[in-house]
């Protein structure tokens, strides 16, 4: 089965690429997702080995900062039934989990951030969801061509 490519967003003050790098084995469950479309991507489409662009959001400047990969299968997200968690969902339970988490493994940190403004300025990336107005989804599919182009941009000096 061909590999898929994704972009995941995280606020660096909540969980950064460096946080992922410093996890045991560079792996951490990607949890706390509470959007059905993002959950469905993780649950139904993520496969071990899929490549991920790691994007820092809600920072200056926002942009793609590195690479990760899907490292395991979806499993119930226990934060959903932890009443002390910010991700608690009163309709979720161990018997009816509703939400999933998937292990994500650190791969690399880019030598520089490929900023959102730079992504928007690239004709080859014009169709990416992350550059579309109003797209706030934390998990987005990307094409292999988009993935490869961003990796290439990361190695070049900023414009």
Number of separate domains: 1
Instruction: Name the CATH homologous superfamily.
Output: ph1033 like domains
- Name the helix and strand elements from N-terminus to C-terminus, one letter apiece: EHEHEEEEHEH
Radius of gyration over C-alpha positions, nearest whole angstrom: 16 Å
Structural class: alpha+beta
Mean pLDDT: 95
Number of helices: 4
Q: Low-confidence runs (pLDDT<50, min 5 residues)?
A: none
Share of residues in strands: 25-35%
- Total strand segments: 7
Terminal Cα span: 37 Å
The CATH top-level class label:
Alpha Beta
Helix fraction?
10-25%
Largest sheet report: 7 strands, mixed
Supply the CATH architecture.
Roll
Q: CATH topology, anyone? A: ph1033 like fold
The 3D shape can be described as globular
How does this structure look, described?
- With 159 residues, the protein is of the alpha+beta class.
- It is built from four helices and seven strands.
- Strands 1, 2, 3, 4, 5, 6 and 7 form a seven-stranded mixed β-sheet that branches.
- A hairpin with a 6-residue loop joins strand 3 and strand 4.
- The longest helix is centred in the last third of the chain and has 12 residues.
- It is globular and about 50 Å long.
- The protein starts with a strand and ends with a helix.
TL;DR of this structure?
The protein has a single domain (5-154), classed as ph1033 like fold (Roll). Helices cover 21% and strands 29% of the residues. The protein is built from four helices and seven strands; from the N terminus they run βαβαββββαβα.
Main traits of this protein?
159 residues; alpha+beta; ph1033 like fold; 4 helices; globular
